[in-house]
Every structure is written in structure tokens, then in C-alpha cells.
């Protein structure tokens, strides 16, 4: 059983690594070349246009469920409306360039396409619900005025006029493969390990009896499991893939992919404190109802098209030559080892205080 677990774990990591590395690279580019101040300017209104903008802007951004919170708070303070902030809080963790790339590797092509579309729909509905039923609050600050300055914000928040493309490309790589990688690697490894455990330990009969149906009960059951889970969109993907291979319906997998990254205890507490109890209730109800409804629609689409997700899973990974996958896996492991060594060499706060004393 132990050998089976490690074999399943290796296959998942090997199939994912190339697309993960690609996602980290694109994440770095977005971080370096996209300004949060300019984003806030476009999200300052409470109109439907601002809500849609927030959803579309948040969808490709490489922020996990924990990383989106300070980003959303920053956008709100910079001038984003309450409605746009809610939309951004949902679309950003539910999908992103990193999760889209790994979805192509581990899920079937149809669910890979449906996933970001469903995330955008969910976030727009939540933004509209906030606009109609939420408490009217003034925007934190006035929207940022547009200008012709080509400045970019550094990690410390200080802007720089550096126009050297290669230097900015180096900064992109540093952010994507070091900073962003370090932020989500724990959740990613958790997803890989849990997926391997599901493939190894959970009998297919159990999944088929409890979560394989096309009705609403399996969707509600997955919603109950997904809401408290602390997973990002990337780590949710191998878990959904393992469950699909065990026989759950694609709509049930979609509920996990939507509810897991957008609703966890940390996010719920932050939304309640930052946006208010009414907004929190609307936030949870919007995600829950829309994800279940979209799950039913996705199950109907698969039935109508006579698609079987289990037969198509992993087609993206099959495109990549085996030698490229092995090299990508090796590089992925090097990044993890480098992160571990840096953590080991870094003195703790207590040790630093003792050294300073």
C-alpha cells in the first residue's frame, strides 16, 4: 500500500510539474507588469460594469485563498467599491493562471474550460447580490487618477521608474518561482498528498455510493465538505482529479473547485470583519447556490454530450514528452529543496532577538 501511495504521488506530481512551472512563470509576469493602483481605478464604481471588470481582472491573477485577502483590502482602500471587492474576492482564488495550467494537466478538457467560466459567473452573481442587498458604504478612498507614469510598485510598496525589461523579467521570475511558489507550496503539497491518499485508500465503491449520483444531494454533500477546507485553486485540482477517477460526477467536482478555494474559515472571518455580516451572508449564499446550480448544469452538459470525464482526464499531460515531464518534476523538487534549506538557514525571531541582545 505504501508503494502504491508513492507511485500515485509521483504520477500526480510528474503530470503536473510542467504546467505548474508554466503557471508560476506567468504569475510572475502578471505580478511585475500589473499595477494594483490602476486596477483599483477601474473598480471604483458600483455599476455592473465594475463588477464584471473585477471578476475578469481577478480570474487570471495568481493569488490563493489567503493571498487574495490583503490584495482585496488594498484594492478597497485604494478606491474599489464594495461590490467589486466581493467579486474580486471570489473570482481570484477560484481560478488563476496556475490553476488553469494544472487543470489542463489533470482534468478533462471540458472541465478545464468550464472551471474559469463558472468562477467568473459565481463572482458576478455575488457582486450583483452585494449591489442589490448589501449595505451601502462609501468607498475607502477616492479612485486613483490615471496618468502617463509607467511606474511599478515594488514588494515594499515603493514605486520605481525602472524601465529595464530584463531586470523586470528577472523580478518576475524571482516572484513566480520564489515568492509565489513559497506562498502556495504547502497547500499544493497538501493537495498532492491528499489526492494520492484518495487514490490509494478510498474504495471506489464508497465514492460511487455517496458522490457519484447526478442529483442535488451529492452536490450538497461536496459543498459541506468544500466550504471549511483550506485549499487553494491549484491544490484543489489534484483532489478533484482523484475523486473524478474514483467516479464522482463532474458537477460534484466543480462544486469542490468553486467552494473550496473561495470559502474557508480565514476568508469567512475576514469578509465578516472587513465587509460586514450581511455581506458575509450574501457571500456564502452566492457561492453555495451558484456552485450547486452550475454543478447541475455541468452534469446535464456531460450527459447531453455523452462525455465521460474519466476517459479524458490527463490528456493535457499526455501532450508533454516524458523527458520534459521528468525534467520539470526534477526542477519542481529542486525548488522545494531550496525553499526548505532557506527556511532551515533562516534564524527564528527568538534567535534573532538573542543575537541582537
| Major sheet: arrangement of strands | 1-2
Query: What general form does the structure show?
Result: globular
Distance between the termini: 51 Å
H and E order? HHHHHHHEEHHHHHHHHHHH
Calculate the mean pLDDT score and round it.
Answer: 78
Low-pLDDT segments, ≥5 res: 139-161
In angstroms, what is the radius of gyration? 21 Å
Q: How is the biggest beta sheet arranged?
A: 2 strands, antiparallel
Total E-strand runs = 2
Discrete helix count: 18
Helix content: over 70%
| Overall structural domain count | 1
Protein structure class:
mainly alpha
Strand content: under 5%
Structure in words:
The chain has 18 helices and two strands. The model is unreliable at 139-161 (pLDDT under 50). It is mainly α and 357 residues long. The protein is globular and about 55 Å long. It has one domain (2-142, 158-338). 76% of the residues lie in helices and 1% in strands. Strands 1-2 form a two-stranded antiparallel ribbon.
Care to give the gist of this entry?
This protein has 357 residues and is mostly helical. It has 18 helices and two strands.
Amino acid at each position: 500500500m505504501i508503494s502504491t501511495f508513492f507511485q500515485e504521488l509521483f504520477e500526480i506530481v510528474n503530470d503536473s510539474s510542467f504546467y505548474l512551472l508554466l503557471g508560476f512563470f506567468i504569475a510572475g509576469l502578471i505580478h511585475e507588469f500589473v499595477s494594483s493602483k490602476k486596477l483599483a481605478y477601474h473598480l471604483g464604481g458600483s455599476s455592473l460594469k465594475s463588477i464584471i471588470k473585477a471578476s475578469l481582472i481577478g480570474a487570471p491573477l495568481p493569488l490563493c485563498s489567503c493571498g487574495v485577502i490583503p490584495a482585496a483590502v488594498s484594492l478597497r482602500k485604494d478606491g474599489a467599491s464594495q461590490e467589486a471587492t466581493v467579486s474580486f474576492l471570489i473570482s481570484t482564488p477560484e481560478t488563476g493562471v496556475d490553476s488553469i495550467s494544472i487543470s489542463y494537466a489533470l482534468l478533462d478538457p471540458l472541465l478545464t474550460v468550464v472551471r474559469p467560466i463558472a468562477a467568473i459567473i459565481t463572482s458576478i452573481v455575488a457582486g450583483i447580490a452585494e449591489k442589490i442587498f448589501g449595505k451601502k458604504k462609501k468607498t475607502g478612498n477616492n479612485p486613483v487618477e490615471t496618468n502617463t507614469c509607467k511606474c511599478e510598485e515594488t514588494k515594499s510598496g515603493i514605486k520605481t521608474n525602472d524601465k529595464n525589461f530584463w531586470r523586470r523579467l528577472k523580478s518576475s521570475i524571482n516572484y513566480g518561482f520564489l515568492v509565489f511558489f513559497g506562498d502556495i507550496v504547502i497547500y499544493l503539497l497538501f493537495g498532492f498528498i491528499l489526492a494520492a491518499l484518495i487514490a490509494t485508500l478510498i474504495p471506489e465503491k464508497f465514492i460511487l455510493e455517496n458522490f457519484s449520483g447526478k442529483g442535488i444531494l451529492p452536490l450538497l454533500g461536496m459543498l459541506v465538505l468544500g466550504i471549511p477546507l483550506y485549499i487553494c485553486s491549484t491544490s484543489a485540482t489534484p483532489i478533484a482529479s482523484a475523486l473524478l477517477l474514483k467516479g464522482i460526477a463532474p458537477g460534484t467536482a466543480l462544486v469542490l473547485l468553486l467552494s473550496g478555494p473561495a470559502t474557508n474559515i480565514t476568508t469567512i472571518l475576514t469578509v465578516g470583519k472587513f465587509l460586514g455580516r450581511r455581506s458575509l451572508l450574501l457571500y456564502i449564499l452566492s457561492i453555495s447556490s451558484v456552485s450547486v446550480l452550475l454543478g447541475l448544469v455541468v452534469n446535464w452538459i456531460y450527459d447531453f454530450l455523452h462525455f465521460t470525464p474519466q476517459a479524458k482526464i490527463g490528456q493535457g499531460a499526455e501532450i508533454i514528452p516524458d523527458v520534459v515531464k521528468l525534467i520539470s518534476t526534477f526542477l519542481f523538487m529542486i525548488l522545494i529543496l531550496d525553499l526548505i534549506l532557506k527556511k532551515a538557514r533562516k534564524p527564528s525571531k527568538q534567535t534573532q532577538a538573542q543575537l541582537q541582545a
